[in-house]
């Protein structure tokens, strides 16, 4: 999709990957409403971005994505692209983590679908959920985080398979980066299991947020690939691979292919 002039709603945009996504979308001419729990960071980002891209093109709202009323209250006026990106990794508060990473992403997706569906007067659109490679492969370091992300792969790809989706005019994609150098991976004690080991193990594969943002922009702008699971890997100097889970026999036994 050409993002120029498009309306975007994005969650978790105050820092990390979401902050980078917001800026990259603005640079391509989109209008972005981004929300986050952290008001001071969000407001600072808004001030910065408004200076560069114009006050009419970017707006921040403080919002807790787990509060359905707050999400609904954010008018989805003219949203063409919805990016459910807010997330945490904290096994100590696993129910809260499920509420943010899974329930809120599902709620955001449903609201966006209702708003966008062409068969009900909308103008179509694109829903991207920031998932993770942790949604594709098991990992003993953070089982509930892993489960929260596996759920979003199941949810997003299931909607993409709906035979009426063409009529609805909505596309669905999962962005699945490997580990990224953001605050999400700054662990306190017991936040994950063997956090030091994980960080040591993942170090050579760790992405920088800009690399993920670049992949995200490719994913958005690509016309093909509905229901795609878009893996982002540290490759040769940050080369991205597009990976898709396909059904080996049409319905079950998914395998990963390039
Ligand atoms: N960093 C990684 O290794 C990595 C890898 C793969 C996927 N991801 C996913 O990328 C997304 C962005 O993470 P990040 O790495 O940029 O981390 P981050 O911590 O830098 O950013 C996450 C943002 O989400 C916001 N947020 C958290 N809870 C919220 C809530 N209840 N309501 C509103 N906003 C809330 C935070 O305030 C923060 O600004 C997450 O979904 C994460 O799971 C991260």
UniProtKB/TrEMBL annotation:
<dbReference type="InterPro" id="IPR036291">
    <property type="entry name" value="NAD(P)-bd_dom_sf"/>
</dbReference>
<dbReference type="Pfam" id="PF00106">
    <property type="entry name" value="adh_short"/>
</dbReference>
<dbReference type="InterPro" id="IPR020904">
    <property type="entry name" value="Sc_DH/Rdtase_CS"/>
</dbReference>
<protein>
    <recommendedName>
        <fullName>15-hydroxyprostaglandin dehydrogenase [NAD(+)]</fullName>
        <ecNumber>1.1.1.141</ecNumber>
        <ecNumber>1.1.1.232</ecNumber>
    </recommendedName>
</protein>
<dbReference type="InterPro" id="IPR002347">
    <property type="entry name" value="SDR_fam"/>
</dbReference>
<dbReference type="GO" id="GO:0047034">
    <property type="term" value="F:15-hydroxyicosatetraenoate dehydrogenase activity"/>
</dbReference>
<comment type="similarity">
    <text>Belongs to the short-chain dehydrogenases/reductases (SDR) family.</text>
</comment>
<keyword id="KW-0560">Oxidoreductase</keyword>
<dbReference type="GO" id="GO:0016404">
    <property type="term" value="F:15-hydroxyprostaglandin dehydrogenase (NAD+) activity"/>
</dbReference>
<comment type="function">
    <text>Catalyzes the NAD-dependent dehydrogenation (oxidation) of a broad array of hydroxylated polyunsaturated fatty acids (mainly eicosanoids and docosanoids, including prostaglandins, lipoxins and resolvins), yielding their corresponding keto (oxo) metabolites. Decreases the levels of the pro-proliferative prostaglandins such as prostaglandin E2 (whose activity is increased in cancer because of an increase in the expression of cyclooxygenase 2) and generates oxo-fatty acid products that can profoundly influence cell function by abrogating pro-inflammatory cytokine expression.</text>
</comment>
